[in-house]
Specification:
By secondary structure, the chain is of the alpha/beta class. It folds into 3 domains: about 5-105, Tetrapyrrole methylase, N-terminal domain (Cobalt-precorrin-4 Transmethylase, domain 1), CATH 3.40.1010.10; about 110-205, Methyltransferase, Cobalt-precorrin-4 Transmethylase, Domain 2; about 225-400, Rossmann fold (3-Layer(aba) Sandwich), CATH 3.40.50. The protein contains 11 helices and 19 strands. It has helices at about 20-30, 35-40, 60-70, 85-95, 110-115, 155-165, 235-245, 265-270, 285-295, 335-340, 355-370; strands spanning about 5-10, 30-35, 50-55, 75-80, 100-105, 125, 145-150, 170-175, 185-190, 200-205, 255-260, 275-280, 305, 320-325, 345-350, 370-375, 380-385, 385-390, 395-400. It has a 7-stranded mixed beta sheet, with helices on both faces. The chain has a 5-stranded parallel beta sheet with strand order 3-2-4-1-5, with helices on both faces. α8 links the parallel β11 (about 255-260) and β12 (about 275-280). α7 crosses α8 (about 265-270). The longest helix has 14 residues, at about 355-370. The two termini are about 45 Å apart.
Length: about 400
């Protein structure tokens, strides 16, 4: 017998009175009602379903919970729109779209934009619910409007502190508490002076104002070299921009950054789109620690860092869509291991700066083809009382597409 569909009903701070009749019908028809304690308390006592509060941690417990009650009619309560950073997306992945029925409520984003008069399509939304607040670094840009889905009452202060450190202390913060509830409240201040105490159920609106000392870090590849903490092992910005162009980041794809150094290639790959993923492989623990710190400060704290020597350290990693080898290409079997890991359509980019690594690149080019380019960059620098050109080490770049 086919088990019944799982209903996923969005509910707001306005509770039962704010629900459409279709949402109320789903709740009343349920045999098991699952949600947070706050959401369950919003449902009238005469609803007969067995009530279950979400376990913690939630996601690992979901398969067992669904299996335990799979023969009963279940209704899951979710905040606002269940498919917008909500539990509905998790359940859709576990059960499949044919096994769920979603009844959405206006999302906190829609309600916040309605209060503020902001066009929803022009606002960047960042969730820090169960995620690091450092994700905001990638979104903070002069003049941008952000909506931050808050993790609780401490989130606005954490956002204010982050903005101040970045030189955006004059940015306006508007905290919208308990959107849709009778006691809804708005608190406004600036990042540099923020000291407000707010309700845990809140959304934070940010109008970014860059100060004269603000670090402006665009999403395009080629960030300033001084944006990174490094020990000299850094792909310089001109070479980095060319390298990222040849790696060709595509939303949702995965990069291996092998011999990552300061992690700049992996970091800027991830900065091109929020769904881009990367794994940085580095054999020196102190450099790996720098990569983690650089990733957080540049807004991609989700960068995975693997400490180990390639190619052995690549053995159990998920298959990549692109591979960059910036160090260690002379290690026996490195090119073969990276090439074999790529699926059809994958890109391999290798940068060589020594004669030994150039020999490996030339051999690979002879066997696999692709493009071979010599990149030479000169930067202006003082020469006594004058200015001259100081050459950087030339880079031989091999790019090959797996067909």
């Amino acid at each position: 017998m086919t088990s019944p569909l799982v209903a996923i009903v969005g509910i707001g701070a306005d509770g039962w009175t704010g629900l459409a009749s279709s949402a109320r019908d789903e709740i009343r028809a349920a045999e098991v009602l699952i949600g947070s304690r706050r959401q369950l308390d919003l449902v009238p006592a005469d609803v007969a379903a067995e009530r279950m509060a979400w376990p913690s941690p939630l996601v690992p417990a979901l398969p067992g919970l669904l299996a335990e009650h799979g023969s009963r009619r279940m209704c899951v309560l979710a905040s606002g729109d269940p498919m917008f950073f909500g539990v509905g997306t998790v359940l859709a992945g576990l059960l499949g779209p044919d096994r769920i029925r979603v009844v959405p409520h206006p999302s906190s984003t829609s309600l916040a934009c309605a209060r503020l008069g902001w066009p929803v399509q022009d606002v960047e939304v960042v969730s820090v619910v169960g995620r690091p607040v450092e994700l905001l670094h990638a979104a903070i840009q002069p003049g941008r409007r952000l909506l931050v889905l808050s993790a609780g009452g401490a989130t606005p202060a954490a956002i204010a502190a982050l903005l101040a450190v970045r030189g955006y202390g004059s940015s306006t913060l508007t905290v919208l508490e308990r959107l849709g509830a009778p006691d809804e409240r708005t608190v406004t201040g600036t990042a540099s002076t923020w000291d407000g105490t707010v309700d845990p159920l809140n959304v934070v609106a940010v109008e970014c104002v860059a100060g004269v000392d603000a670090a402006v870090l665009p999403p395009t590849p080629g960030l300033p070299d001084d944006a990174y903490d490094h020990d000299g092992q850094l792909t310089k910005r001109e070479i980095r921009a060319v390298t990222l162009a040849r790696l060709a980041p595509v939303p949702g794809q995965l990069l291996w950054d092998v011999g990552a150094g300061a992690g700049s290639i992996a970091i800027e790959w991830m900065r091109t789109h929020r769904s881009c993923r990367a794994i940085a492989v580095e054999d020196r623990p102190e450099r790996a620690a720098r990569i983690t710190a650089n990733a957080a400060s540049l807004g991609v704290p989700g960068l995975q860092v693997v400490v180990g020597r390639a190619p052995a350290a690549l053995a159990d990693l998920p298959a990549p869509d692109a591979v960059f080898v910036g160090g260690g290409v002379t290690a026996p079997g490195m090119v073969d291991r990276c090439w074999d890991a790529l699926a059809v359509g994958g890109r391999l980019v290798v940068n060589a700066v020594t004669m030994e690594s150039e020999l490996i690149v030339a051999d690979g080019y002879g066997k696999l083809g692709g493009d071979l380019t010599r990149i030479a960059v000169q930067r202006a620098s003082p020469v006594g009382g004058f200015t001259g050109w100081r050459p950087m080490m030339p880079v031989t770049q091999w790019v090959v597409l797996k067909r």
